[in-house]
Amino acid sequence: MRTYGHRANNHPNAAARQLLETIDRKKTNLCVSVDVTRKADFLAIIDLVGPFSCLVKTHVDIIEDFDHDLIEQLQALSKKHDFLIFEDRKFADIGNTVSLQYSSGVHKIASWSHITNAHPVPGPSIITGLASVGKPLGRGLLLLAEMSTKGSLAVGSYTEEAVRMARANKDFVMGFIAQRRMDGVGVQEGGNSAEEEDFLILTPGVGLDVRGDGMGQQYRTPREVIVESGCDVIIVGRGIYGNPKALDADNVRRQAERYMKEGWKAYLERIGEK
Ligand code: 5BU
Q1: In degrees rounded to 5, what are phi and psi of residue 218?
Q2: Residue 88: active-site member
Q3: Active site annotated at which positions (predicted)?
Q4: What confidence tens digit (pLDDT) does each residue in 94-142 have?
Q5: Cα 188 to ligand 1 centroid, rounded to whole Å
């Protein structure tokens, strides 16, 4: 299993390269998902977890007092703590519509988010639409090949088709949101193996203390995700910041460090350097 550093040196996608370099430089494969509705809480959490993260995942459409200053501050924190930004927008419409949703509106996602994601459900035209905006800016796209929720429909041939769509668009698609490595998935008999591809696997549904949230979310440990399933980045939200109505700064910092250490320990085990 190759190291993050080695993969960074060889990756054809600019955003993937940036992420792998950040992981290697900071020795963290932790992405913190900051799902809170107040700008002040959002920025405070990111300032606390930034030193421990390679990537910060956002849902900017849930923030009640969103404004342009929030983006400026987010970008300043990204520079201060050396992490990339991933807006978890989950685009799912026709090419023309997603290109507008990505570039325009209140949020102007493409102008500040290094990475975003899309459901493969509309077919390859969703990638064409997003790439028309994101590629000139050096952005990267993740396809949702699987989901962490109980009863997810993104399984079997749907997942296989998602991987084939990515293979046909490697210049913009840098990897997947998935629960396991996708090497060889969807490769037809007699077809080329997946040797030349290096899709990054970013995995939500990670928690050390509970197995679910009562609303369909299912949690696995960093070790299960990184060692057993071969994923690259653990995405952790509530396991780190807890209840947003009762934020405890010391605990947020402690939990971020805890997940960072668990994620890195699992990676070292995977590459055989335990
Ligand atoms: P949590 O607090 O660690 O459960 O948050 C998980 C985050 O990852 C949350 O922002 C979800 O929207 C996101 N997510 C997920 O949980 N599962 C998935 O399959 C996908 C995204 Br795709």
Answers
A1: -125, 130
A2: yes
A3: 88, 90, 93
A4: 999 999 999 999 999 999 999 999 999 999 999 999 999 999 999 999 9
A5: 31
Backbone angles phi, psi at 173, to 5 degrees: -85, 115
The closest residue, in CA terms, to atom 11 on ligand 1 is: 204
Structure tokens at 26: 């900071």
- Which domain, by its residues, includes 76? 4-270
User: Which of 39, 90, 108, 170 does the annotation list as catalytic?
Assistant: 90
Give me the CATH number covering residue 202. 3.20.20.70
Task: Give Cα separations from 216 to 149, 152, 211 (angstroms).
Answer: 5, 9, 10
Q: How far is the CA of 207 from the centre of ligand 1 (A)?
A: 11
Query: Which positions ≥6 away from 274 have C-beta within 8 Å?
Result: 265, 268
**How many helices (H) and strands (E) in the chain?**
10, 8
What tens digit of pLDDT does each residue of 52-94 get?
Answer: 999 999 999 999 999 999 999 999 999 999 999 999 999 999 9
57 belongs to an annotated ligand binding site: yes
Measure the CA–CA gap between 244 and 89, rounded to whole angstroms: 21
For residue 24, indicate whether it is catalytic. no
- Which residue from 208, 217, 241 has its CB within 8 A of the most atoms of ligand 1, so it is best to mutate? 217
Q: Is 178 helix (H, G, I), strand (E, B) or coil?
A: coil
Q: Is 41 a catalytic residue?
A: no
- Tell me whether residue 263 is annotated as binding: no
Instruction: Give the distance (Å) from ligand 1 centre to CA of residue 186.
Output: 25
- Token readout for 127 is 């990638």
